[in-house]
Amino acid sequence: MRDYVATFHTHLSALLTDRNLKAAGVPSRMMPVLRKLSSSCGTCVVYSAADPCLEQMDEDVEGVYEITGDETYRLLYQNE
Predict the structure, then answer these.
(1) Model confidence, pTM
(2) Any idea what the CATH number is for the domain that residue 56 is in?
(3) For the chain, how many structural domains are there in total?
């Protein structure tokens, strides 16, 4: 299992993604986003999974990052 954080353009998108992940059996939680990752809606979803679960992301996802260490992140997906 790896840890990931997904950022969003809207709070609703974060909420829908959190619901999608939980429905798929992926443990997740919503929390305030670190400003070094995004300045959009202010909410992110943190989750643990074997893969980034991109199919569970709402269409308004901004980015998906793998948490690689203490406050270090690797961008895996960016929605342009």
Answers:
(1) 0.91
(2) 3.30.70
(3) 1
